[in-house]
Amino acid sequence: MNNLVFTYLRKKRGRPLIRVASVLTVGGITLAVISLLTGLSVFSGFKKEYLKAVLNFNAPLVVMKVGEMEQVSGEKTKLENYLESKNEKGVVTPFLYREGLLVLKGKVKGVVIKGVDLDKIEQVSGTKIRYFSEKKEGLILGEVLARSLGVAASPEKLHLFLPEEGEEKIASRHFLRFPVAGVFESGMYDYDAGFAFLPLAEIQKILKIRDRVTGFEIWPAPGEPASGEPDHPEKVLSWGETMRKDLGYPYSVMTWYDLNKNIFEALRLQKLIFTILLGFLVLVASFNLTGILVMKMLERRQDIAIFRAFGAGPKKLRRLFFAEGFFWGGTGLLLGTILAFGFSRLLAQREWIPLSPEVYFISSVPSAWSWGEALVVFGVGFLFLFGAVWFSLSRLSRLNLVRALTEA
C-alpha cells in the first residue's frame, strides 16, 4: 500500500502553474546561493591579494624600540639569539624609515625612503625589483612612483631631499643627486606609489647616523619556514603576542595585522554585513518552498484523503513531501554552489572587472574560492530548507479529510 502511495503521488502531474512556480523557486535559491558564494570568494580574494602585497613589502614581524635603535649589531645578535632559544629559524634584517622629497624636471613627489639591505630583501621578500642596468647603485623607486615622475627605463638622476634631525628649513645643499637604479613592484598601490628603497649604509651615511636604525624585520628563512610560522600569516598573530611578552619594554613587536589593521578590519566588517544580507536572501528563497508544498498538498488533498482512508500512515505521507521539498531545495543549493564555483574560477583566472588602484589598491576584482565557506553555506541552506519543509508539513495534519472525500 505504501509503495502504491509513493508511486501514484510522485507520478501524478500537477497543474502547469505549480510546476512553473517550482522551477522559479529553484531558480531563486540558485541565484541567492550564487550571489552569496561569489561575493564571499571576492572578499576572500581581496584579503588574499592584500595580504600577499603586504607580506611582499613588509616582514610578517617587525621589532622596534622607543625612539630608534642604536648599536645595530648588538640588537640584531640579541634578536637572533632569542629566535634560536625558541627553536625558530628566521632572517633578521635592519631597516630605516625617512620621509623626503623627490624632484625631477619640475615634478615634486613626497616619498618614504626605506633603507634596507637590498641583497637580503631580494632573497627573503616577494617584492620584485627590476634594475635598469648591472650597476645597482642609486634609488629603487616604486613602479607607480617612477611612472608619475616620468622615469621610464633609464638610470636618470633626480634630486632627493632628506631633512636631518633638528632642522626646520630646507636648504639647497640638502638636495642630493641620485641615479634611479631600478623599480620595484609589491602589488599594493600605496607602496608602489609612495616608497623608494635605498641601501641602508648609504642613507645612514647621508644622515650621519651610522649605527642607528628604525627597527628590525623578521622574515621566514628561505626554504626553512619557522615553526612559529611567519610564513603562515594567521599563526603569526599569536607568535607576535608571545614575542611581545618575552621582549617587554622598551621593545615593540608588530605583526602584519598591526601594521595594516584598518584595511583588514574594514574588509572583515564588510564581509560580515554582506554575509548577513545575502544570507537573508537565501532564507527568503528557501521559504518560498512553503508556498509550493502547500499548493501541492491542497492540489492532492483528495488523493491524500483517499489513501488515508485505505490505511496509508501520515508518517509515510510526510516523508514523501519531505523528499519532494528537499529535492527542489537541494537542486537549487547544488546548482548554486556549482555555478558559483565556476564564476569564482573565471574571476580568478582573468581580470574581467577592472578596478581603480588608487581606491582599491589592486587593478582588478580578485577571487579566492573556499570549500570551507561553501560547505557552511550549503549546510545552513539545508537548515533553512528543513525549517521551510517542516513548516509546510505542519499544514498537512490540518487538512479536513472528510471535506476532501466529500468533494471527491
Architecture overview:
With 408 residues, the protein is α+β, with helices and mostly antiparallel strands. Helix content is 57%, strand content 19%. Helix 2 runs antiparallel to helix 14 and helix 12 packs antiparallel against helix 14. The longest helix has 42 residues, at 16-57.
Can you lay out the helices and strands and say which pair or pack?
Blueprint: H1 2-11, H2 16-57, E1 61-70, H3 72-85, E2 90-104, E3 107-116, H4 118-124, E4 128-131, E5 139-142, H5 143-149, E6 157-161, E7 175-185, H6 189-194, E8 195-199, H7 200-207, E9 212-220, H8 233-247, E10 251-255, H9 256-259, H10 261-299, H11 301-309, H12 314-349, H13 357-360, H14 371-393, H15 401-407
Parallel strand pairs: 3-8, 5-7
Antiparallel strand pairs: 1-9, 1-10, 2-3, 2-6, 2-9, 4-7, 5-8, 6-7
Helix pairs in contact: 2-10, 2-12, 2-14, 10-12, 10-14, 11-15, 12-14
Short structural description:
By secondary structure, this protein is α+β, with helices and mostly antiparallel strands.
Q: Which stretches are low in confidence, meaning pLDDT under 50 for 5 or more residues running?
A: 167-173, 225-231
Helix share, percent:
55-70%
- Class derived from helix and strand content: alpha+beta
Q: Helix and strand succession?
A: HHEHEEHEEHEEHEHEHEHHHHHHH
Strand order of the largest sheet: 2-3-8-5-7-6
Radius of gyration: 32 Å
Number of strands: 10
Largest sheet: 6 strands, mixed, barrel
**What is the mean pLDDT?**
79
Instruction: Give me the number of helical elements.
Output: 15
